[in-house]
C-alpha cells in the first residue's frame, strides 16, 4: 500500500467504488477522521448505506475489518491534534542515523511529490481563473502560524491585480471586512492543524454571502473544506517539532505565477508603475 493514510486511499480508489461506497467515502471525508469513529451501524446510517457496504469498503482499502480501520483513524487523529512536543518526540524516536540535512530534505521532497500527485489540475485552473478575474475582489486570511504565508501571498497578488485585501488576524475586526464581501468575491484561506475556530467562523460568514472559498491546508484537511471544492492539501510532516510550510509555499507561488501569466499585460503595467514610484521615492538602491 502506497500510503497508510485513509484519506489518500479513498482518493486513490474513489473512481473504482460503487455508488454506495462513494456515498460512504464522502461521509468519511466530511469531518475526517472523526466521522469514522462511531460504530459501523452509525456510519452506515449516516451515509444511508448498508452495514455490509461499510465492511466491503473497509476491505477494499486494505483493512481486515472495521476495528483495524478505526485503529488507523485514531492514529491519524492523534497525529492531527498533536503539538510540537509530541511531534518532536515521535520523530526523535524513529529517526534514522543520518544527518538532519538529509533527513529533512528527504521528508520535504516526499511531501512535495505526494502533495502534487494529488492536486486536481481542474481545481488549480479554476482557482487561478477566479483570482485573475478582476471583476472579483480578493481577500486573503491566515492564522497564528499561516499568517506569514497569507502576508506573502497578499503582497504578490496586490502587485499582480487591484482590489486585494489582507484580512488581519484580529478576529474582532473581521466584521468590518465582511461588510464589503460580495457574491462571487474570492477568499483565500490558509489553515493547518491545529485548526482555528475563529477562522472557520469567518469563512462560514463569507461563504454565506456568496464568496468563493479557496483553501490551502494540510494532509489532514481543515474543517473549512466542507465549504468549498477548491482545496489544496499539502503534506507538512518533517523531522522537527514544527510542521513544514514548504509545500504550501510552493503551491501558492505556483498559483501566483499562473495568475500573473493569465493577466500579464495588466500586471506588467502595474509593475512598471510600481517601479516608477520606487525610483521616485529612492526607496531602493539601484546598481546601474
UniProtKB/TrEMBL annotation:
Q: Which InterPro entries match?
A: Homeodomain-like_sf (IPR009057), HTH_RpiR (IPR000281), RpiR-like (IPR047640), RpiR-like_SIS (IPR035472), SIS_dom (IPR001347), SIS_dom_sf (IPR046348), WH-like_DNA-bd_sf (IPR036388)
CDD domains registered for this protein in UniProt = SIS_RpiR
Q: Which Pfam families match?
A: HTH_6 (PF01418), SIS (PF01380)
Keyword list (alphabetical) reads:
DNA-binding, Transcription, Transcription regulation
State the superkingdom: Bacteria
- Domain (HTH rpiR-type) spans 4-80
UniProt name for this protein: RpiR family transcriptional regulator
Q: Which organism is it from?
A: Paramylibacter ulvae
Where is the organism placed in the taxonomic lineage, from the top? Bacteria, Pseudomonadati, Pseudomonadota, Alphaproteobacteria, Rhodobacterales
Amino acid at each position: 500500500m502506497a500510503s497508510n493514510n485513509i484519506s489518500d486511499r479513498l482518493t486513490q480508489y474513489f473512481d473504482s467504488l460503487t455508488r454506495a461506497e462513494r456515498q460512504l467515502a464522502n461521509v468519511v471525508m466530511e469531518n475526517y477522521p472523526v466521522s469514522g469513529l462511531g460504530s459501523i451501524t452509525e456510519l452506515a446510517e449516516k451515509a444511508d448505506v448498508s452495514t455490509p457496504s461499510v465492511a466491503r469498503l473497509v476491505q477494499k482499502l486494505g483493512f481486515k475489518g472495521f476495528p483495524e480501520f478505526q485503529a488507523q483513524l485514531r492514529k491519524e487523529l492523534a497525529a492531527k491534534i498533536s503539538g510540537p512536543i509530541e511531534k518532536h518526540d515521535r520523530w526523535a524516536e524513529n529517526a534514522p542515523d543520518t544527518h538532519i540535512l538529509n533527513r529533512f530534505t528527504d521528508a520535504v521532497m516526499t511531501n512535495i511529490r505526494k502533495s502534487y500527485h494529488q492536486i486536481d489540475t481542474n481545481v488549480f485552473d479554476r482557482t487561478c481563473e477566479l483570482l485573475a478575474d478582476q471583476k472579483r475582489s480578493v481577500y486573503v486570511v491566515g492564522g497564528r502560524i499561516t499568517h506569514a504565508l497569507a502576508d506573502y501571498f497578499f503582497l504578490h497578488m496586490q502587485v499582480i491585480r487591484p482590489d486585494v485585501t489582507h484580512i488581519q488576524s484580529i478576529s474582532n475586526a473581521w466584521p468590518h471586512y465582511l461588510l464589503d464581501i460580495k457574491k462571487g468575491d474570492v477568499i483565500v484561506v490558509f489553515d493547518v492543524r491545529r485548526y482555528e475556530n475563529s477562522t472557520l467562523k469567518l469563512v462560514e460568514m463569507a461563504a454565506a454571502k456568496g464568496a468563493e472559498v479557496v483553501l490551502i491546508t494540510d494532509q489532514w484537511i481543515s474543517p473549512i473544506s466542507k465549504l468549498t471544492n477548491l482545496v489544496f492539501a499539502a503534506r507538512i510532516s518533517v523531522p522537527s517539532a514544527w510542521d513544514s510550510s514548504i509545500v504550501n509555499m510552493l503551491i501558492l507561488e505556483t498559483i501566483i505565477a499562473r495568475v500573473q501569466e493569465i493577466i500579464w499585460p495588466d500586471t506588467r503595467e502595474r509593475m512598471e508603475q510600481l517601479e516608477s514610484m520606487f525610483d521616485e521615492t529612492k526607496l531602493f538602491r539601484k546598481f546601474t
